Fold this protein.
Amino acid sequence: MNLMKRWLQIVTIFILTLSLLAPAAVKAEGQQEGTTTTEIEYEKTVVVNEAELTEEITPPAVDAVIPVNEPIATEITVPNQVITLGEKLEVTINEKDSQEPVVDAIILIDDQASSFKTDENGQASIEFETIGEHKISAEKYSQDSTNTNESNIISLVPVTVVVTSAPSQNIMSEIEVVIGKASQYLIDQYPTPGFFREWTMLALSRDNNSIPKSYFDTYYNDVLDQLQKNNGTLVGSYTEYSRLIIALTAIGKDPRNVGGYNLLEKMADYDKVIAQGVNGAIFALIALDTYRYEIPQVGNVTNITTREKLVDYIVKKEIPGGGFALSVGTPDPDVTAMAIQALIPYKGQADANKAIVQALAKLKELQKENGGYDSWGRENVQSPAQVLVALSALGIDADKEFLKNNGAGIIPAMMNFYDHEVGAFKQSNRINPMATEQATYGLVAYKRFKEGKTSLYDMRDVEFEDDLGNSGGGTIPPTNPDGGNGGTTPPTNPEDDIKPPVEAYKDVNLSITISSSEVPLSTTQIEVKENETVFDVLQRATTQYGIQLNTRKTGYGVYVVGIGGVNEFDRGPLSGWMYRVNGVFPNISADNFDVKAGDNIEWLYTSDLGEDVGGGVEEDNSNKPKPEEKPEEKPEEKPEEKPEEKPEEKPGETPDEEPNVSVENDGKDVVVIGETKDGETKATISAASVKAQLQNQTTKKLVVTDGKNVRIEVPKAMVDPVKLAIEGDDYNLVISAKQEEVNGQTTIDVKIVVQTSDGKTEAIKAYKDYVKVTISAGDIAKDTVLLQLVDGKYQAVPHRIIDGQIVFQTKTNGIFIVSTKNISFNDINNAFNKDEIEFLAKRHVVTGREDGSFAPNESVTRGQFAAIIARALGLQAENESQFSDTKGKWYADYVQALYEAGITKGTSVDTFNPEAKITRQQAAAFATRILDYVNHQATDAGATNYKDQANISKEFQESVALVKSLDIMSGKENGNFDPRGNLTRAQLVKVVKRTLVIAEMM
């Protein structure tokens, strides 16, 4: 479009507008004498008189005047539509008619605003962070301050660009570097490797690099020592023997003679081999086929293992439709890939081949758009590593044949987890040795395939060494892959059966388990010294085996925050570490629990406050010290102290009698009648009462009330002594709410603390659930709201005012202020939902700008959206931001709080893309996640029939239907939902406010 022509159009409209507005403003001043803000009168008058004024004036010819806010037709061009990652893409945007460059247009990548803008030539140089298919478009907003529409003023047809990985030759050179650095990282991590470092041995030995032989010898000598100390028997599942056979074979040590012990004999007992399910069968078959070992005959075993049985067992565990998992249900990529690895030598058999073909199809289906895989709900590097091992063994080039339509592949997806600076791989955004082990041997498997060598687990290229280090003693045993034992192992030297007596060690058995597939330390014997605690043993074991340990000190002892790089809350708000001794979960800190030789100590990671590992309160009746210890110690040492001293000490510190405890009829609430004095309702409950009253499995919460005006509902998990790891029974739980007038304001002080006998207190928090407080406020004003005072600033609190009562929900102790102060903005008088904006502004959920405006028509970014939801739900971050692109930003803590709550996630393991715009379909998904988070049970929404239904992404369709049925988002007047349109700030307020009202949070 000619610029001069367009300028004349703008001037014409401006002159017309002035002529129309002048008499309207005069009229308004005469009619609205009491109004103090003439700007608002001016805007209203324009709207009121616009229709009649336009009727009086003949509009200019169509070809002479074009509305200012009509989008300009533009076009976007790129030199090519297929580029490689790391290559810059030059984008040019011009007006279609005049070919004038479009300056300062914001480039959108996949409908999300980027940091790239066009220059004075209408050009921008774009770099992509991920491979795949990307849509490129642009938007530009008017710089005219009088333009209140603020809509996009350019229109163009987007182009699609495919970003591929680097050429194969570059990938191989990168793999070489990564394997080298990751190998060195593992050596540095485990300078003196021992038993349980089997996957490290596999990764390092199968690359045939220059690692000193002494490194592998150190590992072997420790294995030898472990077997001799335990008479050839290892405690734990039989997959430990399979893993050991694989590692020993890889480093050239014959597992049929390890200090006189034949580990293959352990593979003979079929019932024990499959005791761990399909995982046991898979690794037994892999171990046996590393060197085509024969399965020995063992006299006292009745159900002898055969390859035929193992293959049949694995095939029958296939999930209908293809794929495998540790249990029934959804196929898991890790287990599916490992099943393929085990079945490859038997692909000549029809049933095994069918299972492999179907498993491959399932892996193709499960593959993410970025080429990677999710397992247990989280993308990780281990899953694609296992798939890479399977494909390489099948002769499938993952860099060429196992790609998504957008060009994304497995190896680049793995590299997304690689830290180039450290030279290791990440898990949950942290460097992780186990992830590095699996990723490294996955890349080694691919490298061997490209070099034409045997597969990772086909170790017939290995030469065995004897115990003296002499090589060349190995010959390939007879092979019988179609089933049967294929012969027996030659008898060992009779003298090997005569072993010198082994000195009795004073050991405990220690294991560390995160999940069924993540075991930083299988059951291992650790020497225990006199007067040592569970924590002493853990500390020494983690140091010995190179396992990361993260702890902090509390008023009750040392608290274990993380083991092996997995910390509390990493897997949800109810997750963390617990320990068990001889099957019992003690209720004291680990550094206060003494151990003795023979104890079995387990460190277990729970995702559900112990319920998933057998650590629930209802199972804790045996948490008292062992009968043989307590009855003998207590009466002899202090036969008279407790009865005489305690009653004299306690009355001065706590109420004379235990508060009256009664259980409601529904059996779900434990109700404590507290004492009320000077406006404070308070209950002090002994540890014994807490334990006794919370044992009932149906109990959901502990309620403190004065029976009339105050009710404090505390989630059971928040005060569970077992899950809090509180030492002994020498403490009280104190719950209180105090209402008083301070400086003319009504305040409510809520406290939930643990109080020890020495007077120390420690506040406790609710994580997933809320503490619900109901308190009568008398003749309360209609416009009253409640705010929390934190560090001298007001913060939002989820609350409602119902029949003269304030009902609020909080996750922390604190002081809450009753307020009637109204908040508004100077640009929302014509907003369609002005009342809703002011509703959330008054509650400090949304804020405006320094100039007093709210900008209701402005698009919302991901960072802004996270801040508003976190405020609305009263969420506070427990940890520092894990996203590199939010650190130091005003919304960093809000984003982290929302992430920890599981309501949002990043665009990658360490990025959030906070400045990207939120689309309407994404907002619908956020609304449903909020409802899920507060446990709102929404009914099935049914189908929607928007005109642009086909444009709603499949992953968002259910959310869009739900928000429509709940009248949270109802689409537009033209019948469309506009799923990819940007959400405005005014629309955001509507979504958040209505969602919170439905969830009964406001």
Q: What stands out?
A: Residues 292 and 479 are 5 Å apart (CA to CA). Residues 3-31 form the longest helix (29 residues).
